[in-house]
Design brief:
single chain; mainly alpha
Length: 110
C-alpha cells in the first residue's frame, strides 16, 4: 500500500476550516428541510475532492475543476440564501464565511 502525504499550508487550512464550519452549520440545521443536509454534504464532498487524493481517477488530475465547482457551489448557496433565505444572525454569519471561502478559493492555486 502506497502512502501519500498531503501538504497543507495556512491558506489551505483556513479554506478547510471555513468549509467545515459552513458544512457544520448546514448539517446542524437538519430540519425542517433536507436541503440543509444536502448542502452540508456537498461542502464536505467537494472539499474532500479538492484536498484529498481520492481513488477517483476522474478527479485526480482535475483539481482546478473541483476548485471551481466548490466556488460555484458556494456562490450558488449564497445567492439562493439571498433570494429565499431568512436574514437571521446565523444566516448572515454563514454568508460571511461563504464569501470569505470564495475569495480564498479564487486566490488558491491547486
Amino acid at each position: 500500500m502506497e502512502t501519500t502525504r498531503i501538504r497543507i499550508g495556512v491558506m489551505q487550512a483556513v479554506i478547510i476550516l471555513l468549509a467545515l464550519i459552513a458544512a457544520g452549520i448546514h448539517l446542524s440545521l437538519l430540519f425542517p428541510d433536507v436541503i440543509f443536509i444536502l448542502n452540508g454534504l456537498g461542502y464536505l464532498g467537494l472539499t474532500a475532492a479538492y484536498f484529498l487524493q481520492l481513488p477517483v481517477p476522474f478527479l485526480q488530475d482535475r483539481k482546478r475543476l473541483v476548485r471551481f465547482a466548490l466556488i460555484g457551489y458556494t456562490a450558488l448557496t449564497l445567492i439562493l440564501w439571498l433570494a429565499i433565505g431568512e436574514q437571521t444572525p446565523l444566516g448572515i454569519f454563514t454568508a460571511a464565511i461563504e464569501v470569505l471561502l470564495i475569495v480564498l478559493l479564487l486566490f488558491q492555486r491547486p
